[in-house]
Amino acid sequence: MAAHHNALVNNMATTHSACGITVMFAYAIPDGIVDILQSVVAAGVTTVLDIILSPVWCCDECLPLSCAVKRWSDVLSWMGGLASDGGISVPPSQAYPWPPRHIRGRTVIAESRPSISSRLSAKKPVFEYEYYQEGDVIIGGLVSAHSRTTEHKTLDGKSILCSLCTFINIEEYRSILALIFAVDEINKDPNLLPNVTLGYHIFNTCGDPKLALGYVLQILSGENMEAPNYSCKGNREVAGFIGDSRFHTTHAMAQVLSLYQYTQLHSYVKKVNYLDSTGAEIFFNDQAEVPTKLILANLVIYKTKTDFKFVTVPLLVFNTTLDDNNVFNIEVNNISWKNATIPESRCNDRCPYGYRKATNGRIHVCCYDCIPCSEGEMSNVTDSETCHKCPNEEWPDETKGTCVLKTYIFLSYENDVIVTIFSLSVLLFSAITLFILFSFIYYWDSPVVKANNRTVSFILLISILLSFLCVFLFLGRPVDITCMLRQVSFGIFFSIAVSCVLAKTMTVCIAFKATKPGSSWRKWVGVRVSYFVFLSCSSVQVLICVIWLSVSPPHHEYGMYSYPGKIIIQCNEGSVIAFYSVLGYMGLLAAVSFLLAFMVRTLPDSFNEAKYITFSMLVFCSVWIAMIPAYLSTRGKYMVTVEIFAILSSSAGVLGGIFFPKLYILFFKPEMNSRKIMLV
Hints:
Layout: H1 2-10, E1 13-15, E2 22-24, H2 31-42, H3 48-53, H4 65-86, E3 108-109, E4 130-133, E5 137-143, E6 146-153, E7 160-168, H5 170-188, E8 198-204, H6 209-221, E9 237-242, H7 247-259, H8 268-271, E10 273-275, E11 281-283, E12 293-303, E13 308-319, E14 328-330, E15 355-359, E16 368-372, E17 377-378, E18 388-389, E19 394-396, E20 403-405, E21 407-409, H9 417-442, H10 447-450, H11 454-469, H12 480-513, H13 527-551, E22 555-563, E23 566-572, H14 576-599, H15 610-632, H16 637-668, H17 675-679
Parallel strand pairs: 5-8, 5-9, 21-23
Antiparallel strand pairs: 1-2, 2-3, 4-8, 6-7, 10-11, 12-13, 13-14, 15-16, 17-18, 19-20, 22-23
Helix pairs in contact: 1-2, 6-7, 9-11, 9-16, 11-12, 11-16, 12-13, 12-14, 13-14, 14-15, 15-16
């Protein structure tokens, strides 16, 4: 016992011989108190050090001096009662002057220490009462050796300096000593748990459920800081927990431990059955849970003529006695929200129109990403799970929130400037052609007009004029009749024109071959060959077009998928073979005419048209050869635009190449418009 006396006087640490608990003192105790403590220990009260010193939690950092005075007064009062029961003489508290002059530190009992954990929101006291012995198997314990905690605030009362455990519970403290003693006895007997060391980890919860929750996690993790779902000491195993006799702390402890499949709590739990302040029965069911019915209500106060009245409006009912679907019930109609808007707790905004929800791999199912609907799809509800395709005739608008009619695409007189350009070009070229035609009629008997079969020249001018005018069949909204006429008329008129050019080329060739003496070509000289070539070559093209219209005529159709959001109104050629047969035959006539004209291009200039025919056919063939890849690589109205350009440019090339030299002679070189000059 002298060792304890020296420890008290010399401010050193010592170990209690009865329970092996380290008691450290960081302040000097008045000599009178030391004498009393020595007398108590000598009388056999072995727990006095732990019991007396445990509530003395005063320190310079957090408590005013009056706290220390009060705590020492409590100690003396308790010791006075203990002395009267045990026959110990304790001087009255007035014999010791207060406040003591040497209170300047903190008391640490049973390795108690300030809590450094900040993982839980519960406020911890300045000191933790922790009893720990290492072992292979650990028994956890939470005991309320103090009945409650007291918070001490700053002088202005705005913040809390520290929280202290107060009001010792002797019975609970004896439970701690009993558990420690039992563990020591089990470890001493090698036959009870061979090769296994039993340990314990006990905390004093001070009757605070918030502290109990933190201590449970601290026991499970094995370190000073709580680490839920982690064990920082892998060598040990927490076999079970022992709770105290207080309902609130034990119930909080049971709720957490049920998540970790721990069930060896105090037998007190299943025996609890009492009525609370409202008269409701409190008890545990078979799952160690308390059937609970909680009602959250609005207390509405309204004024009458004479006084105020109160009405309780239930908002939320939580009743664990009901089935799972009805445990939680919200009376939505009874809730009055600010600005009449229900607040929402969300981790992201709702997906607007035109978006759909997509999981992002996070833990919470209520968290998701909003991604835009794919092309051609829409969503017209918020937080849509999927996007929907629009009907074939419709397409999503810019926001992808609704479907609108697709835009119809064709060469429109109202919307396309190129149509106006084409129309003006057709009118201009047609006017030029008519001017040449009327000029030839005016100079009908002139040698320049009569040269090389004026009848064929007139047919050529009319076919060129019709080729220009057939462009109007390609403009505007396509219908079945225009689709049938556009390609057929274009093919026939161009074939007639090229046949006339071929007839004129053959006339030039035969005429010069017949000039040789004794030539057999003399019998072919005349207009009959020209008419035969013109009629036979044109008839073949007409026959192809008749078969085309009879077997698979062109018709209009709607191209739904060529361009997103657009419907192309276009002509389906019907038979692709017939279409390319028309183009191929026309190209064959142009190629033959070009070769013949090229062969006779060196004949005398005064009578020879071959040079001009060669140039016009070169322009014609070049245009159509360049048109083919451009035509095949485009769709819709752009394909039609390419074809119209080819028609206009090739027709203009034939018109200018063959007839502009004759106009030049008629209007600017009239002296050359004589039979004598033409025969030279």
